Amino acid sequence: MQTQEQELIFEMSRPGRTGYSLPEDELTEMNVEHLLPADYIRTNEPELPEVSELQIMRHYTALSSRNHGVDSGFYPLGSCTMKYNPKINEDIARMHGFLHIHPYQPEEQVQGAMKLMYELQESLAEITGMDQVTLQPAAGAQGEWTGLMMIRSFHEANGDIHRNKVIVPDSAHGTNPASAAVAGFESVTVRTNERGLVDLEHLKEVTGDDTAALMLTNPNTLGLFEKDIIEMASIIHDAGGKLYYDGANSNAILGITRPGDMGFDVVHLNLHKTFTGPHGGGGPGSGPVGVKKDLVPFLPKPILVKREADYSWDYDRPKSIGRVKPYYGNFGINVRAYAYIRTMGAEGLKKVSEYAVLNANYLMRRLQQYFELPYDRHCKHEFVLSGKRQKKLGVRTLDMAKRLLDFGYHPPTIYFPINIEECMMVEPTETESKETLDQFADALLQIAQEAEAEPETVQEAPHTTVIKRLDETTAARKPILKYEKTS
User: Fold this and answer.
1) Model-level pTM?
2) What is the maximum alpha-carbon separation in the chain?
């Protein structure tokens, strides 16, 4: 039963209650007709709830406690790297000199911020094995598009205007073919073989004179390392194409291997994943893109450069694809990533990947007793399970994901990758303790046992949440976007 503080704010309204005190409105004594069109001037009081300050505070505090985040619970969302964001990063991003600068300030007034961005670029180039990096793209998907636009411009500059196809594995992130389409390319799917890796023979079949690039994640979306990457790079490069690295799974390779050493020409990174910017809720991302030397002329402009005594913006880039975001990326996320890299150091970043891989393999082996393991081999930072065994009992992976809510966990990614039936994709990250992993495993094992002994308990979940199971299809197709008073 809801308490009064948990009711909708409009239902709490009572005439005469106020929760604010505003200064006298100067406009009340002015003639505002010359400032606004007559139709825009309010002639009656707005229908706002009349509540006290205490009620407002309790209402929003109660709502905030219903949100799930990394700070409040385990968040094993596969392919998203929902790891803990160190609070020192937040403190540094809120320092006055970073928080209150403006993108239009003269260069001489923001040299400290420019130095930070330049050093971040250099660090990311070293981490990925690229020659130069731009911080401009605002998210991973925009980074994909930016990289593909540079590849397109490169081919056009060489007269290869017929290269209109981008090869994408069938287990790739959905943004890969979408980014290719937005960049003006046609997507060609390459199959995954029985080992969960790119089928080399099929790759050879689909590669040709019209190949612009291969988009690849390594380790791939199944959490498996593409051990044939050098041969794949040769196949694409021999055909005149470029190799694009989707950096969504970089958490598995930091300090161990680099995309540039694997043969990749372009890479994007997700600073809001691997480098601990806040992640989720539609809030700001950052998708820096690094390139090898022959693609440097096509980087978005302006380029941040270091002179003898200072830093400046270079706009004289005749081959550039142009600006891809206003100003220069999401600066606050850049600050957090810089703080993280400087805090961890080279050895710390390597340990990030080692612990992430260790945690994933430990959890995978604990769970394989009750769930089908499509690829029984060491994984990297994440792994996939299949709920086919439970499906035969009338319990879907969706049901198990909903049941996990009753245990206080955010469910893992489900039904992705799409080439695994009843897929459940788990990524524990390096920041979780063995105790947390064991508790999560125990919860999933209990759910698997419930699927056998009392399937209706799982089928009707969740049981303890404020809102029970939704009709998600209708909610997506026919959303209610405005408040409607119930009585």
Assistant:
1) 0.90
2) 78
SS3 52: coil
Question: What pLDDT, on a 0 to 100 scale, did the predictor assign at position 116?
Answer: 97
| CA gap 305, 303 in Å, rounded | 6
For position 132, what pLDDT does the model report?
Answer: 98
Contacts of residue 324, Cβ cutoff 8 Å, sequence gap at least 6: 136, 137, 142, 145, 146, 149, 300
| β-bridge mates for residue 246, sequence order | 268
- Report d(CA 363, CA 366) in Å as an integer: 5
- Give per-residue pLDDT as tens, 80-117: 999 999 999 999 999 999 999 998 899 999 999 999 99
The CATH number of the domain covering residues in 347-475: 3.90.1150.10
Sheet holding 165-169, edge to edge: 132-134, 289-291, 266-269, 242-247, 211-216, 165-169, 186-190
Tokens at residue 244, please?
Answer: 């694009």
Question: Tokens 């009585």 appear where?
Answer: 487
- Give alpha helix (H) positions in 368-471: 388-391, 397-405, 434-453, 455-459
Contacts of 127 (CB under 8 A, 6+ apart): 254, 255, 258, 341, 349
Q: What is the C-alpha separation between 169 and 196, in angstroms, rounded?
A: 11
Say what percent of the chain tops pLDDT 70.
95
CA-wise closest residue to 335 among 7, 156, 97, 140? 97
Domain ranges of the chain: 4-64, 87-343, 347-475
Q: Is CATH 3.40.640.10 the classification given to domain 87-343?
A: yes
| Residue 2 exposure: Cα atoms within 13 Å on the Cβ side | 16
- CA pair distance 411, 387, nearest whole angstrom: 14
Using one digit for the tens of pLDDT, what is the confidence trace for 319-364?
999 999 988 889 999 999 999 999 999 999 999 999 999 999 999 9
Q: Enter the tokens of residue 439.
A: 């508790």
8 Å CB contact between 331 and 99: no
Q: What is the identity of the amino acid at 102?
A: H
Q: What are the residues whose beta carbons fall under 8 Å from the beta carbon of 240, sequence distance 6 or more?
A: 160, 163, 209, 211
